[in-house]
Specification:
The protein is of the alpha+beta class. The chain contains 9 helices and 7 strands. The strands form 2 sheets. The protein has a 4-stranded antiparallel beta sheet, with helices on one face. It has a 3-stranded antiparallel beta sheet with strand order 3-2-5, with no helix packed on it.
Length: about 250
């Protein structure tokens, strides 16, 4: 399930072992099988909205709502969005309307619910895009992060060692690791692993390629090593993951 979690109060949690602390009126976005852990009190007011890719495929609807890679599945951005009170209440009211529609069992309930969901994603995507656009000009270390992103996109299929990227940036491994972690809260190794896993999930969900074909495309020595690598990061095997999330309409 994709998860959208409305956090009315300040919250402390980790996603894939990276810790975050949100302000009041924030929304957390999680892709299937991301590891979420809460810290401190759980008495805060929380609303949870979950949907399966078969109900609403974020890749299939990317022309209407470009949320894949913005709200979901971006290893460089924080997985949450902070909103002002008015925007947050608007999203909260839409979730309430969806809940009422679920219980209504009307003829057009599914279409109405999808419309509400798409509206929530569109509002949040627009807000996050605007917030990212309002950021100040990147500093030197942020430019290094952008260069690393570009290199990772080019080489993640074949290069999974942090030292490769440090060498490309003419930096020591220690300095490179510190600078990257200071920017996104993750080590280069974590980012490399997450990028590989996102691609693996994409191929398993959006194509009919076999697990062996996916492992070959991602340059693993064999499908068994790929399965162990995937299970260590995701918590279940590639085959089990595909059974749970299904194969998207995009593959057809």
């Amino acid at each position: 399930m994709y998860s959208i979690i409305l956090l009315d109060d300040e919250s402390d949690f980790s996603v894939n072992i990276v810790k975050y602390k949100t302000k009041r009126k924030s929304i957390l976005f999680l892709s299937p099988y991301q590891n979420l852990k809460w810290f401190g009190s759980t008495s805060s007011k929380v609303k949870l909205l979950q949907f399966h890719g078969d109900f609403y495929c974020i890749e299939y609807h990317k022309k209407e709502v470009a949320c894949n890679g913005l709200l979901f599945n971006n290893i460089y951005l924080q997985p949450y969005l902070s909103l002002n009170t008015i925007k947050f209440q608007e999203i909260s009211q839409l979730v309430d309307k969806m809940e009422k529609e679920v219980g209504a069992n009307k003829r057009f309930s599914e279409s109405v619910i999808k419309s509400y969901l798409q509206l929530i994603l569109a509002i949040c995507s627009s807000e996050k895009d605007e917030q990212l656009g309002n950021r100040l000009t990147p500093q030197t270390n942020e430019n290094e992060l952008l260069l690393f992103q570009s290199l990772l996109e080019l080489h993640f299929h074949t290069e999974r060692n942090s030292s490769f990227y440090a060498d490309k940036l003419n930096m020591s491994l220690s300095s490179f690791s510190k600078k990257i972690k200071s920017q996104v809260g993750k080590t280069p190794t974590q980012l490399i692993q997450e990028r590989v896993i996102i691609e693996a999930k994409k191929l398993l969900h959006l194509t009919f390629k076999t697990v062996k074909e996916v492992s070959v495309e991602l340059n693993f020595d064999d499908e068994f090593y790929f399965s162990r690598y995937f299970k260590k990061e995701v918590g279940l095997s590639p085959t089990h993951f595909r059974e749970k999330v299904g194969i998207s309409i995009v593959a057809k």
